[in-house]
Specification:
Strand order of the largest sheet: 3-2-1-4-5-6
Shape: globular
Distance between the termini: 18 Å
Structural class: alpha/beta
Bound molecules: 6-O-phosphono-beta-D-glucopyranose, magnesium ion
Helix content: 40-55%
């Protein structure tokens, strides 16, 4: 019922996508691995470990919610004060790991695709759970491509809540139905669907089954291919 409603909306919007909303970590920049490593280090310091498969559930989820999920997997209970301290520790490790980040960490094909989208007059936004998003966009030189950046400092609800994408659409003054989202996280795909947006997965099909199309990276896309994906999914 839920999905039928959204697939019917896909049909309505066929040609009218006006805005592209990009997740940041793992879609535009190669940082998903550092979030994973920093969380793993924290989990191990607590005498626990988790797998790459478990990590798929953490992608897209904000810092505190990720930590609560890890503590829950480990069967550990911590005070709110301790949770804040552990989240800050993970963030310190993560920031050390991304300290040297520059344009070399932009994922393959990203800049070509963004340039082409801008030339074709699409509005562009970032929709990320990260509180480090603005800093990363500046370090990598990607900030100027985006009309709007909605991140974890603007929206407190974590994906799969649709708030981050709905806020991006609102700031762009575009109906959610006219937006397409690019996401590498299961929680992000669900958030986009809940926002009533079409979503293209970036990663592996087995991790992102609900996306209308999955690519291994943005290097597989250009405006022509995007239009044909939008058209295919509109019929
Ligand atoms: C998301 C990442 O983009 O941002 C998550 O996929 C991360 O792994 C979340 O937990 C919050 O990031 P930060 O930088 O605010 O800790
Ligand atoms: Mg991501």
């Amino acid at each position: 019922m839920f999905f039928t409603k959204f697939f019917m909306r896909y049909r309505e919007r066929s040609q009218k996508i006006k805005a592209c909303i990009f997740d940041l970590d793992g879609v535009l920049v190669d940082t998903a691995i550092y979030h994973y490593r920093a969380w793993k280090k924290l989990a191990q310091s607590l005498g626990f470990d988790f797998s790459k498969e478990d990590n798929e559930h953490l992608k897209g989820v904000n810092r505190i919610s990720s930590l609560k999920m890890i503590l829950n997997w480990a069967g550990l209970q911590k005070s709110e004060e301790e949770i804040e301290r552990l989240a800050e520790l993970k963030n310190q490790w993560y920031k050390e790991m991304i300290g040297m980040m520059n344009a070399g960490h932009i994922l393959l094909g990203v800049e070509d695709f963004l340039k082409e989208l801008k030339e074709a007059d699409y509005l562009l936004a970032v929709g990320s759970a990260s509180k480090n998003a603005e800093a990363l966009l500046m370090k990598t030189g990607l900030r100027h491509y985006f009309d709007v950046v909605i991140d974890g400092t603007v929206v407190s609800e974590s994906k799969p809540d649709p708030a981050v994408f709905l806020k991006a659409a609102e700031c762009l003054s575009v109906d959610p139905v006219c937006c397409v989202v690019f996401e590498d996280a299961q929680a992000g795909v669900e958030a986009a669907l809940r926002a009533g947006m079409m979503v293209i997965g970036v990663g592996k099909v087995e991790d992102l089954r609900e996306a209308c199309e999955v690519v291994s990276g943005l290097h597989e896309l250009n405006v022509k291919k995007l239009c044909s994906i939008l058209k295919e999914n509109a019929n």
